[in-house]
Design a protein that fits this description.
Number of strands: 9
Radius of gyration: 37 Å
Oligomer: single chain
Number of helices: 6
Shape: rod-shaped
Order of helices and strands: EEEEEHHEHHEHEHE
Distance between the termini: 90 Å
Structural class: alpha+beta
Largest sheet: 5 strands, antiparallel
Length: about 180
């Protein structure tokens, strides 16, 4: 059997193993090859055979993973601030609730506004909506005060002034804790 006469850059196959690669280093009879997967392995020269071209096309696991990955569609990124904006807005201005506000007393208007707020809050709790903004306007603060009293009767609700830049002073944001059972 004649000697292989290997040189750096030759493509070789390992005789007793399913490995092949390119010769990268030679030190007497100790040969280092870089496999098609990128590993450097040492063999004796007698364990290697020079081949003209790869016996089969090999792909690294990284190549396979890249090909199997579905192309992800780029979603427009939402700013963090926008992500946490309330999902439900309830406008309690009387002209949005009824067309007959001119014949109603102040007490009737306030009662209608509070009933609407209570119904919407119950709806949000039932539908597991976490944030609700009640737009009440500035006025004399009577509706805002009554809303705060209403929200205070719920154990699973926290309320605070809504985003000033978006609503000004005339809105209250309610955060509903979903894991607390309302009694």
């Amino acid at each position: 059997m004649k000697k292989n006469k290997l040189e750096i850059g030759d493509f070789v196959s390992v005789l007793d193993d399913d490995l092949s690669g390119t010769v990268t280093k030679m030190n007497n009879s100790n040969i280092t090859i870089e496999t098609v997967d990128g590993f450097n392995l040492d063999f004796e020269e007698s364990e290697l055979v020079k081949i003209n071209k790869p016996l089969r096309i090999s792909m690294s696991s990284q190549d396979i993973l890249e090909k199997e990955q579905p192309v992800k569609k780029q979603r427009p990124r939402q700013r963090t601030k926008e992500r946490f904006q309330p999902t439900l807005e309830v406008d309690l201005h009387i002209h949005h609730l009824t067309e007959n506000s001119n014949i109603m007393t102040n007490h009737e208007m306030l009662t209608l506004q509070l009933d609407t707020a209570r119904r919407q809050l119950e709806f949000a709790i039932q539908k597991r909506i976490q944030k609700v903004v009640f737009i009440h306007g500035v006025g004399e603060g009577v509706l805002k005060m009554e809303l705060e009293y209403l929200f205070g009767r719920y154990n699973n609700v926290k309320h605070y002034d809504a985003d000033y830049q978006k609503y000004g002073l005339g809105a209250t944001e309610v955060y509903i804790y979903q894991n607390v059972n309302a009694e």
